[in-house]
Structure formats: structure tokens, C-alpha cells
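Re: your question from the hallway

Yes, I did run it. Sequences:
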Amino acid sequence: MMIKSHNFYFKKILFLKKFNKKLFKKIGEKMLLTKEEQEMLKGKYGNAVKKSMEILVALGEIYGAEKLIRVSSVQVAGVSYDNLGESGLEYLSNLSKDGRVKVLTTLNPAGMDLENYEALGISEDFAIKQKMVIDSFAKMGVITTCTCTPYLIGNTPNFNQHIAWSESSAVAYANSVLGARTNREGGPSALASALTGRTPLYGLHLDENRIAKIKIIVKTQIKGTQNFGALGKVIGEKIKSTPCYIIGINEASMEELKSFSASIATYGGAGIFHMENITPNKTVIPLEELIVTKKEIEKALNEMNMGDCEVDFVSVGCPHASIAEIAKLADLLNGKKVKKEFWITTARPTKKIADMSGYSKIIETAGAKFASDTCCVVAPIKGRFKCLATDSAKGCYYAYSKNQSKIKIMSVENLVKEACKEPSVVK
Amino acid sequence: MAKLIGRKIFGGIAMGEALVTKQGISFFGGIDPSTGVVTESGHELEGKSISGKILVFPQGKGSTVGSYALYRMKKEGTAPIALVNKECETIVAVGAIISEIPCVDKIDILQIKNGQKIKVDGEKGIVIFD
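Structure:
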């Protein structure tokens, strides 16, 4: 009898073990990989591909992807040496030993203008490390245009194309305005997609996750990049990352949508939004609704307007300035002299167009500076300035949280006026 | 002997002391990478070092640069020896893979006590303790 029950107990354990193993196996082998993908994972195509596959398969299993899909474009964040540090550089340098990108891949802003860094006050030590980061990416075949607006310089996906982008503002813009499909990737996962040409099929690649869940009724006229940024802050803080359907916006320029995308992604974490008569994606129109009033927009602007500071740094180009924004600045700055540090951050190809068009000369004659390849979020400028004025709500968030600078948000016209004011305290 | 069955994120075996929190962890900005001490203001683990411990927490949060921060800690010798999550997300998963730190998730972390000696088997996706 004793032996019998003991046996029974033993059998039960065996059964449980088998069951658990089966359960575990089921979880571990949920994704369907092609023969080539399995070989990539086993290391047949080198270490960089193996590491990349490990990342993608783990992410796919975490988020319940049934398989990997091919991507046609990648945008990689995690480029500034200020954020990467020595070990980030080491990781990239290791990957570059045998890793080569399979699809068009561009970079996010670096920690400095790669050519004109001395004039912008960046140290030689930092510059050397930053260049090593860029060299590792270049070795892997990445196009080293360092910009948060890849869609303005030739990395421009079509409607419904699957891509793997990091850089939250560009993700929101690509999904919402262009109608391409990407999750909010991190730097290493986007790079893994570049080196394999794959991404796991989940999240914003699937129709069901792109549909609006809430309707936002905007009850006031929104105009100008600073006000579209404020709208993004109000909506983002209200609904976090929930996909929304926005009505009440009559028209929006590319620059205004760029500002709005950056802001809604920064303050809420959204990867996609819909705007009636403006964005192209299909969605059901949700019944649940929320109203955004003029008062709320004013409150958001007030929060980004700290009274007790004198502006010592003016910045335009978060996300990176378009050629139209640069043309407008040239018009506003023509014949004037700025009295404060004034940075226009933009993509190098956009800067080249500005050079060809004569805008750069007008702007630089007025004393403003171009900072290509970089931006005020990722450059090592903490402590250099006390009060930043910008038209970007995203710029305000990072100036305050990362660089502990005070902030003022205003229109581009007012930024130019502010920059030309004589500082009251001589430093 | 108790055995919690979860899911493999990254393989490898580690035995050590559990450092348990009910709050999310931000590896970029929330921890000093040169010491492994949690610096996030108001965090349950503020002032405590995660270095050499088996860090048990619900999930990662914050910037995706956190994956590189974990890698930096591994290189500097300040990283945890294993990671145990309730629900692993991108930052921690990628961080564990590139840093080669054993990591499992889908674990009922409330069953693990702070300071308890535990064993993590990343390959099998399990946590074992007395």
C-alpha cells in the first residue's frame, strides 16, 4: 500500500514535470521562424546577426508576436555619446565587427554638430568619443545623417509599409501622418532590425492596435508650432498612449504636425493618433469623447512659461527645423542682430539646402548659429544656460527635466524678438 | 523547496540574495551606474545598491537608453547578477540580452522575500528557493 501510494506520488511528480516542460516549451516556441531566421539565431551569419535575432525573438515572445516580418526602413536612436557612455560605444563597436545593415537605416541626433562643434562649445574629448560612435554606425552601413526628422531627408516610408523606428516623435509622425507602421522601438531593438531586416509582428504593426479608442474634440483654433505643441501636451497628459481621433483642427502644416507628434509622444507616450481630414489611416470613430478647451491650452502654455527668468538661450528646431522653417527665420532675422545665444538645430542635408538658398548667410550674419546633426535634448549643454526659449513643447520638457533649465515657450516671431532684446544683466 | 515557473528572457544560472521591490525600475537616470545605488527620489529602494544582487521587480520603466545603462553596469561590475520580473518589457529584455544577465519573467514576485537566498535558472525560466 505504502509503495503504491509512493509510486502514485512519484508518477504525479513526473506528470507535473512533463506538463510544466510542455507548458514552458509552448511559451518558448510560440514564434514561427523561417529556416533562414533560425540560422540567423544560431549564429550562421555572425555574432551581430545572432545578438540581433536574440533581441527580436525575445521581444516577439514577450509581446506575443506569431512571427517576424520584413521591414523596409530603420531609424536608430541612442547616438549621443552623452547618453550612450563608454559601454554603449563598446557595444556598438562590437556589433560593427561583423554587422551590416540590410535596409535603409538613418540615425537620430548626435551629441554635437559633427563639423562645427568647436563654435558651439563642445569639448575635444567629447568630440573624439562622439566621432567613434558615428564611425561604428558608418562601418555597419548606416547613413549617418543624424536627425530626428528622417522623413524630411529621404528616409520616407510609404503608407502601410512596415518599418522599425526609434525616436518617439518620428514614430508618431510616421504612423499617424505617413501611415507607415512601426512600434516605439528603443535604440538597440531598432538596430537589431537594421542588421536582420526583420521585426516581430505585434503592437502598431497590427490593424487592431491602430484604431482610435477615444475621440478628442478641440474647441479652440490651434495655429503655430507652439500651440500645436501645447495641444499635444494637453492630450498626452489626459489620455497617455491611447490612440485618439481628434476633431476640430481645420488645417495643419507639416511643421505643426511635426511639433504635435513630438509633444503627444513626449507627454503621453502615444505611437499613433488620427486627425479628422488630415491624417490618412482608417479607424472607427470612438463614442467615448473628451473635450479640449481654450483654457486648457492656455494653462499648458503657462506651465511652459516660467516667469522668473531672463532668456539666455533661444532654440528652434525640435524636432529638427524644416527648410520652410529656416526660410521663415531668414526672413525674420534679415538685417537684425541677435544679442543672445541662438541655435537652429536641423538635419545636415536641410542645412545644405539652406546654404544653397542663401538662408544660412542671412541667419549667420544676424548672429544665430546652426547646430546640424544634434539637438538641445541630446547635446551636453547642462549648466551652460539658465533659461531656454523655444517654440517646442518637447524641447521644454527636456530642457527642464534633463538640463534643469528654466523655460519659456513662444511663437517663432516672438523668439526672434526675444533674441534681439538687449540682455539686462551683463555676464 | 519552492519553485516558481516563469519564462526565459535570457539564459544562465545565478544564486544570491534577492532585492525585492514592488515598484518599477528606471535603469537610465534612476540608478547610479558607477555604484549600482538606486538614486530615484522617493523609490522604495532609494539609497540601496542593486550590485551583485538578484533584482526582483515588476517591470522596467523610463528611457530606452536604460538597456545601455544596464550594459554599462555589467561592464563596470555594478550590475545585478540576475533579473526577475513580473512582466518583462523592452528596456529590461534588451538590457539583459546585450549584457548577458540571466533574466526570467512571468514570476509571482510577491512570493519572494527581501534578503532571501534564491536561485534563478534563466534557461529553464524558473526561480528556486527554500
